[in-house]
Description:
By secondary structure, this protein is an all-alpha fold. The chain has four helices and no strands.
Amino acid sequence: MELPGDIGDTPIIDVIKKHPKIGEILGDFEIGCIDCSIGTCLFKEVVKIHFLGDEVEKQIEKKIKEYLATV
């Protein structure tokens, strides 16, 4: 995923704390980062490790970018 700024290099737990909406977006695609107690995965790797395929990854990336453009 190509994400703006350094958000991709941030642990997912910190991203969700700052942007709960991103956790909701991931949850819509059955990526349960909100419930994870560890949260050390880098945000840019979270979608890839779930092997959802290129099309789904593009959908997630689009939704996240759209959200980030509003904050």
